[in-house]
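Box 4.2: Ligand-aware structure prediction
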Amino acid sequence: SQKVVLITGCSSGIGLALAVRIAKDEKKRFMVYATMRNLSKGEALVEAAGKTLGRTLEIKQLDVCDGRSIKACVDSLPERRVDILISNAGMGLIGPIECQTIEEMKTVMDTNFFGLVRLMQELLPDMKRRKRGHIVVISSVMGIQGILFNDVYAASKFAVEGFCESLAVQALRFNLNISLIEPGPVITEFERKVYEEGLKVDLSKADKVTADMFTNIYLKNYSQIFETMGQMPEDIAEHTLKIITMDNPPFRHQTNTLYTPMTTLKYADPNGDLPIDTFYKMVFEHDKVFNASLNFIKLLRWRSRKSFTLDKDKAS
Ligand code: NAD
């Protein structure tokens, strides 16, 4: 029988690509409920969905910041059944924290973190009862590693990861799966929106060094990072489709191999200094990046020698 998939934030970007890709599954294995906060923004999805609309794809209203809207959406589904939840809705925020209001930060936490919590409160009890379900969360590499001037956004994704890691143990008891998809940069509206908001940041509350760092280093390199490392939303959709069709889906999945060396730094050094030093050098001492990379490779080689050599004396 068809699996019911509920996806949030489908009016653009990754959510739209996901909804369309899963609804167009050649074997018609899924019935997709593509949800969005504002139904009047459904045009792009309607167009991309084509013939799947009304067949394997239906559009519904759902605002992850509004518990009543979540409940109304789930109540409208046959038997309230959701086999696969894809929590995708999210927003970014960049800039020095002294230039941001607590209200702005709370909106990010409310959307990215509490949005997921609300969905889980509504869906988890049913999934537990059925002993069937897969919760897939579009997290980010920033869910495991902080990035300059993304302080609150990274915190919201860390919150998501801690929440899911804790629940994953309980989920096992009910035969449920949880998977975190961790993309690096993806070329979507997100990138443009975040950048445009970044240009509007009132830097008068920041000191000169911080303001300069944000404008002349961070914003200046922003587009280049997306150009050189960015994936398309369709790539993320392809990765996610693979994850939801696996018998034993992984808890974490990074979509971008170009980014893996960066996240590996975190696990390579239990003190946590290696990624911070490396990011510092990348940002402020471009010429030293080569040396940093070299040190990293040396460390990896040292570690693999340690784990493969039984005789400590030989591992010099
Ligand atoms: P996007 O801005 O195109 O999509 C985000 C979607 O979430 C939008 O359609 C927006 O309307 C929706 N949304 C926001 N608040 C909502 C709410 N309260 N209720 C329902 N929907 C809401 O950007 P995207 O890149 O497709 O982002 C999707 C997810 O991917 C986000 O969780 C984001 O954090 C994550 N992500 C993005 C990137 C990237 O570089 N673009 C990288 C890693 C992870």
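In the box above, the bound molecule is nicotinamide-adenine-dinucleotide. The pocket of nicotinamide-adenine-dinucleotide is lined by residues 8-9, 11-15, 36-37, 63-65, 88-91, 111, 138, 140, 183, 185-186, 188-191, 193, 233 (CB under 6 Å).
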